[in-house]
Amino acid sequence: MSRVAYVNGRYLPHADAGVHIEDRGFQFSDGVYEVVAIADGRPVDLTGHIVRLARSLRELRIAMPMPERALRLVMREVVRRNAVSNGILYIQVNRGVHRRDHPFPPAHVAPSLIMTARPTPGVSARVMEEGTAVVTVPDRRWARRDIKSVSLLPNVLAKQAAREAGAWEAWQVDGDGFVTEGSSTNAWIVTPDGTLVTRPTGDDILAGITRAALIDLARREGIPVEERAFTVEEAKRAREAFNSSTTLPTVPVVRIDDTPVANGAPGSVTVRLHDLYEAHTVGAGAEDWLAA
């Protein structure tokens, strides 16, 4: 079956969907987005994603495109029309269409709302068995990384640098040598004493919804958690390392630049968190579309 996209009130064939050439998301990257995991046809941690979407919009002074209940109904319909059982739902809200000018358009200009959905394979068994490599790159993004903005060019360049180096992900590093996050993931290590460490939320990283779920799951399991910055050198001496995101909740890291992490194999804490998150997606994490 052909894919279907939602664009400003219309369900359209994916190949025919588009926005106006003066849409501010196209011309200025003036918009935000969210990606929601779908498991067995149900959204995972949807409420958290909607809360974060609303926050990002408030920070940029963009209006919510419709009431939350209506938004949830459209989300559900996009997933249904695309027959996605396990995959992702992509939502983007731009400031709207107006003649090209840097200041905000008049208040009557409505935001643009775009949604798509597609199946995704998830983390492969091979990746969980063998792990992945990351490279480190300077963090050259803007100062408000807590806003899930569509301005992703530095992330694109970082991810491309990783691929050209034969790595799966790039860890971005601030001017003091501390890891901020990956190009499309949050970054984690496990210290030699078994403590799970990830950078605290703030203006310098995105508050990952999967990140929050993993912290909660780890604490329930009795795994000690520290939200603090860690350096590249500390990561290279760690017992384990991994990345997390909505689409790939736990991806083991077994090499950082040219340095193996511990014995060069995925660690037990990473694997345990992977299993816990898998259970989460069919338990408390999987929401009904219209749940408040």
TrEMBL record:
Phylogenetic classification of the source organism: Bacteria, Pseudomonadati, Pseudomonadota, Alphaproteobacteria, Rhodospirillales
One matching Pfam family: Aminotran_4
Record-linked InterPro entries: Aminotrans_IV (IPR001544), Aminotransferase-like (IPR036038), BCAT-like_C (IPR043132), BCAT-like_N (IPR043131), Class-IV_PLP-Dep_Aminotrnsfr (IPR050571)
Name the record gives this protein: Probable branched-chain-amino-acid aminotransferase
Source organism of this protein record: Roseospira navarrensis
GO biological process: amino acid biosynthetic process; branched-chain amino acid biosynthetic process
Catalytic activity: L-leucine + 2-oxoglutarate = 4-methyl-2-oxopentanoate + L-glutamate; L-isoleucine + 2-oxoglutarate = (S)-3-methyl-2-oxopentanoate + L-glutamate; L-valine + 2-oxoglutarate = 3-methyl-2-oxobutanoate + L-glutamate
Pathway(s) of this molecule: Amino-acid biosynthesis; L-leucine biosynthesis; L-leucine from 3-methyl-2-oxobutanoate: step 4/4; Amino-acid biosynthesis; L-isoleucine biosynthesis; L-isoleucine from 2-oxobutanoate: step 4/4; Amino-acid biosynthesis; L-valine biosynthesis; L-valine from pyruvate: step 4/4
Cofactor(s) this protein requires: pyridoxal 5'-phosphate
Enzyme class: transferase
Its job: Acts on leucine, isoleucine and valine.
Keywords, sorted A to Z: Amino-acid biosynthesis, Aminotransferase, Branched-chain amino acid biosynthesis, Pyridoxal phosphate, Transferase
UniProt entry tagged with the keyword Signal: no
Top-level taxon: Bacteria
EC number: 2.6.1.42
Family statement drawn from the similarity comment of this UniProt entry: Belongs to the class-IV pyridoxal-phosphate-dependent aminotransferase family.
GO cellular component, one term: cytosol
